[in-house]
Amino acid sequence: MFLGVPIVIYLQARFLENEQDVMAALERAAPGKFVAVDPGALKFEEMRSLMGGAAVVIGAHGGAMYNVFFARPTAAVIEFVPIGSQGLNIFALISTMLGQDYIRGMERKAGNGMVVDTEKLERAVTEALHRQ
Predict the structure, then answer these.
(1) pLDDT at 11
(2) Tens digits of per-residue pLDDT, 82-129?
(3) Domain ranges within the chain, ordered by starting residue
(4) 16-49: per-residue pLDDT in tens?
(5) Which residue, among 54, 68, 64, has the nearest Cα to 102 in the 3D structure?
(6) Which residues fall within 8 angstroms of residue 31, CB to CB, at 6 or more apart?
(7) What pLDDT does 12 receive?
(8) What are phi and psi of 29, to 5 degrees?
(9) Within a 10 A sphere around the Cβ of 132, how many other Cβ atoms?
(10) Domain 7-130 in CATH: superfamily?
(11) What b-and-e string marks burial along 103-124, b requiring 16 or more CB atoms within 10 Å of the CB?
């Protein structure tokens, strides 16, 4: 188990078409300091502990993002949302209420998923870590 990891990322292949590029961008932004997590594979206590140590939480819009409730108030939350999506503001509201920095990544649609702008993601993660 990773404890005190500065970045937690939820990547679901069905949502992100360029998942390997995203992982490479995160490795450049935070070498050796991020972990890809399948939230459904962890016990509640494990997820709560992992999130409590996160400085940055990254993920595609969806149910797994509710785990930001367990992240500390100083955490940054980066959410991937498809361009043109209307009304997907729940995690912006939750993060703001918790005092967390919220960054929305507007990603272009591709097939049944999204393609993340990895340069933009790398900059956002680097800046979020510098604010910690």
Answers:
(1) 55
(2) 887 776 789 999 999 999 999 998 788 877 788 999 999 999 999 998
(3) 7-130
(4) 888 889 989 998 999 888 888 888 888 999 989 8
(5) 68
(6) none
(7) 56
(8) -75, -35
(9) 12
(10) Flavodoxin domain (3.40.50.360)
(11) bbbebeeeeebbbbbbeebbeb
Q: Which amino acid is at 60?
A: A
**Alpha-carbon torsion (18, 93, 54, 50), positive or negative:** negative
Judge whether 49 and 43 are in contact, CB under 8 Å.
no
For residue 104, what are its two tokens?
């929305």
Q: Could you identify the residue written with the tokens 């900059």?
A: 123
Predicted structure pTM score: 0.88
Strands 34-37 and 56-60: unpaired
Q: Give exposure, 42-75, as e/b (b: 16+ Cβ within 10 Å).
A: beeeebebbbebbbbbbbbbbebbebbebbeeeb
Q: Which residues on neighbouring strands pair with residue 34, listed in sequence order?
A: 7
